[in-house]
Amino acid sequence: MHKIDMDLVEMTMDVMKYVIDRISNTQTTINKPKKAEELKALVGETITKEGIGGEKAFNLWKEYLTKSNVPIDHPRHLAFVPASPTRAAIMFDLVTSASSIHGAYWMEGAGGIFCENEAMRWMVSLTGLPEGAFGVFTSGGTAANLSAIVAAREYWRSLDVVNENKKGLVITSIGAHSSIKAMAKVADVEILLVDTEDVMTAEALQEVIYNLTSEERKRLFAVVATGGTTNAGIIDDLYGIGSLCEREHLWFHVDAAYGGGALVADSVRHLFNGIEKADSITIDPHKWMFSPYDCGAVIYKNPELAKNAHSQEGSYLDIFKDEGAHGFNPTDYQIQLTRRVRGLPFWFSLAMHGTDRYKQAVERGIELAQIAGEMITKMDHVELVREPSLSCVLYRRVGWEPDDYTHWTYENHEKGFALVTPTKWKTGASFETVSRFCFINPDTTEDDIEQILKSMI
Ligand SMILES: *Cc1c(COP(=O)(O)O)cnc(C)c1O
Q1: Which domain range does residue 414 map to?
Q2: Cβ of residue 288 lying under 6 Å from some atom of ligand 1
Q3: Three-state SS for 214?
Q4: From the CA atom positions of the chain, what is the Rg in Å?
């Protein structure tokens, strides 16, 4: 064998061994970041004219660099929205890379896109949207929300030429994810907030609409409800809001980036009633559907409307539209052209394990939140801020000030023991600093939760 090939085979074996070790190791500690200068001092120059060689670069990665990443799949990582990609999906992520698939057009990526669409069909079936609804995988919830907002805005503009020069207006609530506001900025859309971090009701929304000036009412084109707020797992009144949007002829977007995974869970599915009225829905498989990063999804009731907004024109692209027209072109339904078939690892894992395993794993996250809630109720030093919702638990340590929460978080992180971060919860006009759990990883144990709570004594 040629020398280069030998090196490559050895390198491949090393990489595979590393990957297998990483995904089989359940006892990793929670690392913490180092400063860029510290990392630089440890690894020296890595980009040189001659190259430092694969072995050296890989050793630097193993010895120093990977240890400066926080493993988001650690069972005691309960901050933000953690992740827990399946081993099957991770292994197939390697296959996805090795296959070099251009995932924009069917003409080039038919096999990969077919698999993505199989997984997508299952996701769409969970929503109860009518026949014809379909979606596409995006880089995440942010890109999915942007794609949906732009599709809604372009549809509104297509209804009346006078809308073409108007700045559109969208209503959402304080509980909505920051990406809604950020993406409204990208799309140059104004945002109005219903003043609640708890459930957004149809009545509260109706009142905000009622109080608009007639000029504002003409600019209003969409409402964004949340199917599982990131902070507290709260699901807005989707049925009431959906009905109101129908009456008011407004585009109804449901951001279920985090909570969407729970559509598969029988114990909470009823909380999402009304999601079938949505014009568009965001769900992140990289959150609660156990896909590796990055994998979001946007689903449309009428995909043609998204196509009108997103299909790209260019003489160099015509060829794809001709030969590829018989198939599904993911680029037509979201903001990105060249794309990884990022739904492919998710498809493989779903095909391998079956949907029941997904149901069980999501139900376990919900159950862990209930268990944590019961423990907190029984212990004297902590109390619930509100009942657990989906897999989120907000609780306070009696007598603690905001700084105490911060110190406790840093101390546990420093020890490599756990990552649990404080958040704020709005009651009335004031914000209280509280502690928060978000469960995703079904391997988190009851003992993990107990140890974390006891570390607050
Ligand atoms: C996480 C989240 C987002 C953003 O998704 P990314 O994948 O991080 O871009 C949007 N909305 C909600 C409700 C989320 O929880």
Answers
A1: 358-454
A2: no
A3: helix
A4: 24
**Which amino acid, residue 144?**
A
Question: Is 426 part of a structural domain of the chain?
Answer: yes
Number of domains in the chain: 3
Please give the distance, rounded to the nearest whole angstrom, from the Cα atom of residue 429 to the centre of ligand 1: 25
Ligand 1 pocket test: which of 139, 282, 392 has the largest number of ligand atoms within 8 Å of its C-beta? 282
Q: Over 157-170, what HEC string results? A: HHHCHHHHHCCCEE
Sorted by sequence, the CB contacts under 8 Å of residue 236 that are 6+ apart come out as: 173, 175, 199, 200, 201, 225, 226, 227
The overall pTM is greater than 0.85: yes
Query: Ligand 1 centroid vs 142 CA: distance in angstroms?
Result: 6
CA of 201 to the centre of ligand 1 (A): 21
The CB of 236 under 6 Å from ligand 1? The reply is: no
Q: Is the CB of 365 under 6 A from ligand 1?
A: no
Residue 415 forms part of a structural domain: yes
Per-residue pLDDT of the chain (457 residues), as tens digits, is 456 677 889 999 999 999 999 998 866 789 989 999 999 999 999 999 999 999 999 999 999 999 999 999 999 999 999 999 999 999 999 999 999 999 999 999 999 999 999 999 999 999 999 999 999 999 999 999 999 999 999 999 999 999 999 999 999 999 999 999 999 999 999 999 999 999 999 999 999 999 999 999 999 999 999 999 999 999 999 999 999 999 999 999 999 999 999 999 999 999 999 999 999 999 999 999 999 999 999 999 999 999 999 998 877 777 666 555 568 999 999 999 999 999 999 999 999 999 999 999 999 999 999 999 999 999 999 999 999 999 999 999 999 999 999 999 999 999 999 999 999 998 888 899 999 999 999 999 999 999 999 999 9
Element (H, E) at 435: strand 430-438
**Does residue 84 lie within any of the structural domains?**
no
* 258: in domain: yes
Which atom of ligand 1 sits closest to the CA of residue 228? 13
Task: Please tell me if the CB atom of residue 81 comes closer than 6 angstroms to any atom of ligand 1.
Answer: yes
Provide the 10 A C-beta neighbour count for residue 188: 9
CATH at 101? 3.40.640.10
